[in-house]
Design brief:
- The chain is built from ten helices and no strands.
- It is mainly α and 250 residues long.
- It folds into two domains: 33 residues; 210 residues, MetI-like fold, CATH 1.10.3720.
- α3 packs antiparallel against α4, α5 packs across α6 and α6 runs antiparallel to α8.
- It is globular, with a radius of gyration of 22 Å.
- It starts with a helix and ends with a helix.
């Protein structure tokens, strides 16, 4: 009972925060007085509801979701592997660090244009999500490994703890908070970069292509509706990842 009562004020707080920003959005709409630049929250959510009743809406979401999450999961796995090798082999870390720094520094638009010269537009969101997420996962995982308690490792060596037990009970437990934090941040970056790649490359049947069309035809309500959908999808994927990762790490 106490748990339920303690969660209620937290829920109310979130609702009030959302209402505050919706009100700020409405005030901005009143002051701008241009349906081309901005629409009211009511118009945007009504349009989102209308789009949600079409097959093209869900098909576009499914396509974008599949490709962006492919890039994210690939970067997640490769980033952890590269960080683990880099922590063990210093020369390897020095060799790949320039490439990781370049990925971290080059703007998404530049990467997208360069990638369009070398690959089909269909693979663009996967690649852009990958290069955007990889540095975040790599640096955080590497930092987590470096910060693993050396006394625990020394004790494990003294008692001749098997390698797999050291990896699970010491390294994974120590690194997990860094990885979860990196993943939570990078999911949002994956969505932003992936959708931007779809928009720049005009990848057919995707969220980015719908945003491109809405911009061309000045369908501001559609732009806001698709943007709300992107925010919701990013939030849902972050929560799903935290839930799954939390269960795996128990």
């Amino acid at each position: 009972m106490e748990k339920v009562s303690s969660s209620c004020p937290k829920f109310i707080k979130y609702v009030l925060i959302i209402l505050f920003w919706l009100l700020a959005w409405e005030v901005a709409n009143v002051f701008v007085e241009s349906n081309i630049a901005i629409v009211s929250p009511r118009v945007a959510f009504v349009r989102l509801f209308q789009l949600g009743q079409t097959l093209d809406f869900w098909s576009s979401i499914a396509t974008s979701l599949r490709r962006i999450m492919q890039g994210f999961l690939l970067a997640f796995g490769v980033g952890i592997i590269l960080a683990a090798i880099s922590a063990k082999i210093k020369i390897f870390y020095q060799l790949i660090l320039p490439a990781i720094n370049v990925m971290n520094a080059i703007p998404i638009a530049s990467f997208t244009i360069i990638a369009l010269l070398a690959m089909s537009s269909a693979n663009l969101p996967v690649f852009i999500a990958f290069v955007t997420v990889l540095p975040i996962i790599f640096f955080n995982t590497h930092k987590g490994i470096q910060n693993t308690d050396p006394q625990l490792l020394e004790m494990a060596n003294v008692f001749r703890v098997p390698t797999w037990k050291k990896i699970y009970y010491i390294y994974i437990k120590s690194v997990a908070p860094y990885v979860v934090s990196a993943a939570s941040i990078s999911i949002g970056f994956a969505w932003k970069s992936g959708i931007a790649a779809e928009l720049i490359g005009v990848v057919r049947g995707t969220i980015g292509a719908n945003l491109h069309n809405a911009r061309i035809f000045l369908l501001t309500a559609d732009v806001f509706a698709w943007t709300i959908a992107i925010v919701l999808l990013s939030y849902i994927m972050e929560r799903v990842f935290r839930l799954v990762f939390g269960r795996v790490m128990r």
